[in-house]
Amino acid sequence: MDNSIAKNWKTLSGETHWKGLLDPPSPDLRTYINHYGEMAEATYDAYIQEAHSKNAGNSMFARKNLLKKTGLLLGRPLNQYKVTKYMYATSAIILPGSFVMSSDPHAWSKKSNWIGFVAVATDKGKEALGRRDILVAWRGTVNPSDMIHDAEMRLVSAPKIFGAIHLDNPKIHEGWYSIYTTNDVNTRYNKTSARDQAMEEVKRLVNHYKHEELSLTTTGHSMGAAVAALNAVDILFNGVNKQSSNPPKSCPVTVFGFASPRVGDAGFKKVFDSYKNLYCLRINNMPDVVPKYPPLGYSDVGSEMVIDTLKSPYLKGPGNPGIWHNMEGYMHGVAGVQSGLLGGFKLVINRDITLVNKFGDILHDKYGVPGFWWTLTNKGMVQREDGTWELDDHEEDDDP
Q1: 102 vs 300, which has greater pLDDT?
Q2: 293-296: long-range contacts at Cβ-Cβ below 8 A with a sequence spacing of 24 or more?
Q3: In this predicted model, what pLDDT tens digit does every residue of 155-164 receive, in sequence order?
Q4: Are the CB atoms for 264 and 298 separated by under 8 Å?
Q5: Which one of 43, 75, 155, 192 is at 20 to 30 Å from 2 when CA atoms are compared?
Q6: pLDDT value of position 87
Q7: Residue 147 — pLDDT band, cuts 50, 70, 90?
Q8: Active-site residue 392, yes or no?
Q9: C-beta of residue 115 within 8 angstroms of C-beta of residue 89
């Protein structure tokens, strides 16, 4: 197997902030970006959005089966990870589209939703990636109109991340901060916040593999990309990336954010930019409005890679905001973007075009791929021994 990704992983993860590497990206970089994109996509593929289900807002799949049942293992040597932790979130404020709550009186939770996972590369994954990677993937909001509504919120201080006093007084979007840091002691799944769940697990894994070469990668789409950026700077600010080895060392932290709205103000950007081993690549689709929000008082962080799915000959045009924001559409764009504003579109890597239609009717009809094809068999309805039917759309983990 070609091990060029393993040899060049530091460059691919942003050691030079991707200078000179994005216009156009190499096949390795396209593959690498989409590797992390697929991990973000898994949080959508496994998310139960059926409000009639008592499991609405939870994951369909147990941790041990997540990557297999979302189709991320076959033919994907980079995706060899073990999922070690699920994170759950609640929020002190209402964020349309960010949570699905069950209408069933026996719902698994009335206040919490599954929000992502922590995973670590297996030995096979380590060989393909060139080091042991610890990954944190955050679920986002699918509907761009919800995202724009969510973006219309105030900037707030972030004492749970940066402490009570910070010279730069960084301020964060209130919604992203609430989802990331809110806990509720009266719930089963959010006695601690999504932040604390993720940070505790990352710290455990960093210590467990303290004698190995490590990297930390956070990823997400839409709201998930914003939370991934928050999570990354939180890891650096609070020293969670420091390995207790002899001599002590710190592993790099990289964010791959797809369709990310803006996260914080100029003070947040100043803190973000102050870390020499923190890298962020924002992948933005030209017609997608979400990365342009919130429009005032915010500063972009990291580097930007621009794609334009309007140029793809595979997709129906002109599309709509939902199509332009679609995560699978983003990965299709990464696979085919060419150089400059006048560049066309050509699939440089072998990205299966059928994936674009998982949550939309986006491909041209001539390809013979049904729209919205990603669904459980019979929408999760299974037949009992007595011939009656029931909804069974969630599997429990063997351990808590």
Answers
A1: 300
A2: 293/147, 293/148, 293/151, 293/261, 293/262, 294/151, 294/152, 294/153, 294/173, 294/261, 294/262
A3: 999 999 999 8
A4: yes
A5: 43
A6: 98
A7: low
A8: no
A9: yes
Give 262-300 as a DSSP string: P-B-HHHHHHHHT-TTEEEEEEEETT-SGGG-S-SS-B-
- Separation CA 112–CA 306 (nearest Å): 34
Please state, in angstroms and rounded to a whole number, the distance separating the CA atoms of residues 257 and 26.
19
Q: Output the six-digit token pair for 352.
A: 């299966």
- Active-site residue identified among 222, 234, 332, 393: 222
> What global pTM score does this model have?
0.96
- Residue among 219, 231, 312, 233 nearest 268 (CA): 233
The verdict on whether 23 is a catalytic residue reads no
The region of weakest confidence among 41-55, 78-92, 154-168, 219-233 is 154-168
The pLDDT, as a whole number, for residue 124 is 97
312 tagged catalytic: no
Q: How far apart are the first and last CA of the chain?
A: 37
Burial (CB < 10 A; 0-12, 13-18, 19+), residue 186, is exposed
Phi, psi of 170 (to 5 degrees): -65, 140
What residues have CB less than 8 Å from 238, skipping those under 6 apart?
A: 161, 199
Which pLDDT does position 144 carry in this prediction? 66
Catalytic one among 288, 312, 393, 394? 288
Which residue in 35, 173, 221, 325 is the catalytic one? 325
